[in-house]
């Protein structure tokens, strides 16, 4: 009773507060939870990876600059253990999800976006804990997934909890959950500005929710401060391209990267959701557990030929950005890796495993840029940058930014993750081309996105049927 009275007093206080005070208080509260959630998941994933892949499979996983900058190993000393670990990790993850929170399967961000549009009170508290454990098992055992999905669901879930407990209006609840999505992703990637912009853009394909932008600054900045105070403020990938100067002679290359990024992003979304549909149609007893396990087995077998598909893959991005280590990777691996990572992510998450799809999109874009640079360098093409970093950063922005229908947010986030804001004048060309090409299709990596604010409002009012996803 006392808790109900306290909640009622807080709710009344917030409802009677002006815009500034309300969103300052809510923004800081959501940001603190987002930052702590990002820290908790980062540590859970780190220890799980060290035990499952490191101890059980005896594989030294490469890590990015902000994660320790460990070059890792390019091969396996205990190759037979890799598919065993990926299978068992996926099996354990799927069993936990099936038993405690079936809605925690998949990448999670779509569920949070759907809550924004339909019911911002709908995210159950238990989903947050289940998602964290299941994703740590999936990715830590070698499944191809990103760490942003669980952190987005943690902070979005807290926004949903506040909406329920404080009886916020639906409009305020939608903003709170959107802020949670952006701040969670921004915190785990060390990209607070990009996270704030993402909060305002990720829920629509062709629109921008300005109501979420300014409160998102508060939430994302708070989350970043909390996360960085514990784990440090270094960019995830260090300064990949700190001092690039725009060269007009490179315009054809930026156009080309935009075109191939759109094609690759399109392939990513189509392959991922084709895998989801196929997995749902295959009649296997206990399929909600066995299908992810089968996906884990196939990823482990694929990794025996291409180790770069394992886990998040951020360490391989770090290695690819350096010319000497990129040249040490066989050319056929660099060229085929974008497709191999798409397949691995589809098998890991599309079959019902738990993890994000943003992170793999960054790795796919990285090796798309790396492959373009290596092939052009091999052919002696003119106007190439001195190293692969420029192509890698631009392709990371264009590939996922286009298919996520969040070009500005992803461009800012990648610039923050790589400390490479100098690349933006060149990147806006590639990102713009890629996004314009994607908008000619009906494809998005986030199916819960609505077309725009007007379509979403009409759907909620029952004027039109739900938009085609």
From TrEMBL:
Matching CDD domains: Voltage_gated_ClC
Entry's localization field: Membrane
Keywords: Chloride, Chloride channel, Ion channel, Ion transport, Membrane, Transmembrane, Transmembrane helix, Transport
Residue ranges crossing the lipid bilayer per the database entry: 23-45, 79-98, 175-204, 253-273, 293-317, 329-351, 357-376, 388-413, 419-438
InterPro entries according to UniProt: Cl-channel_core, ClC, ClC-type_chloride_channel
Superkingdom of this protein's organism: Bacteria
Protein name as annotated: Chloride channel protein
Entry membrane topology: Multi-pass membrane protein
Source organism of this protein record: [Mycobacterium] wendilense
């Amino acid at each position: 009773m006392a808790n109900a009275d306290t909640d009622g007093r807080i709710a009344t206080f917030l409802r009677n507060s002006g815009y500034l005070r309300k969103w300052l208080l809510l923004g800081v509260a959501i940001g603190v939870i987002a930052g702590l959630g990002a820290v908790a998941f980062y540590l859970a994933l780190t220890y799980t990876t060290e035990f499952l892949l490191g101890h059980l499979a005896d594989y030294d996983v490469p890590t990015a600059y902000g994660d320790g900058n460990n070059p890792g190993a390019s091969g396996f000393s205990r190759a037979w253990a890799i598919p065993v670990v990926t299978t068992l990790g996926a099996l354990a993850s799927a069993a936990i999800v099936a038993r405690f929170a079936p809605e925690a399967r998949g990448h999670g961000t779509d569920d949070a976006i759907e809550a924004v549009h339909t019911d911002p009170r709908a995210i159950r508290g238990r989903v947050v804990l289940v998602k964290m454990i299941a994703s740590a098992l999936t990715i830590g055992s070698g499944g191809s997934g990103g760490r942003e999905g669980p952190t987005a669901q943690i902070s979005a879930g807290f926004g949903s909890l506040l909406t329920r407990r404080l009886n916020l209006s639906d409009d305020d609840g939608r903003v709170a959950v959107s802020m949670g999505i952006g701040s969670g992703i921004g915190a785990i990637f060390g990209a607070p500005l990009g996270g704030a912009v993402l909060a305002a853009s990720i829920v629509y394909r062709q629109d921008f929710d300005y109501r979420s932008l300014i409160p998102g600054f508060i939430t994302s900045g708070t989350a970043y401060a909390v996360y960085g105070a514990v784990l440090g403020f270094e960019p995830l990938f260090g300064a990949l391209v700190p001092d690039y100067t725009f060269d007009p002679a490179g315009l054809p290359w930026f156009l080309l990267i935009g075109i191939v990024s759109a094609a690759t992003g399109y392939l990513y979304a189509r392959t991922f959701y084709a895998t989801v549909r196929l997995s749902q149609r295959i009649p296997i007893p206990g399929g909600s557990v066995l299908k992810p396990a089968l996906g884990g087995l196939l990823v482990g077998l694929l990794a025996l030929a291409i180790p770069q598909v394992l886990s998040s893959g951020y360490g391989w991005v770090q290695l690819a950005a350096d010319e000497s280590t990129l040249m040490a990777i066989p050319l056929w691996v660099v060229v085929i890796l974008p497709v191999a990572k798409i397949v691995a992510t589809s098998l890991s998450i599309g079959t019902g495993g738990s993890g994000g799809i943003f992170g793999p999109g960054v790795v796919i874009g990285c090796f798309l840029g790396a492959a373009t640079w290596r092939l052009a360098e091999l052919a002696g093409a003119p106007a190439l940058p001195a190293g692969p970093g420029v192509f890698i950063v631009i392709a990371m922005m264009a590939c996922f930014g286009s298919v996520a229908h969040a070009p500005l947010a992803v461009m800012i986030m990648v610039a923050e993750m790589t400390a490479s804001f100098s690349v933006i004048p060149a990147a806006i060309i590639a990102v713009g081309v890629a996004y314009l090409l994607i908008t000619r299709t009906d494809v998005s990596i986030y199916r819960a996105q609505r077309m725009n604010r007007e379509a979403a409002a009409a759907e909620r009012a029952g004027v039109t049927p739900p938009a085609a996803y």
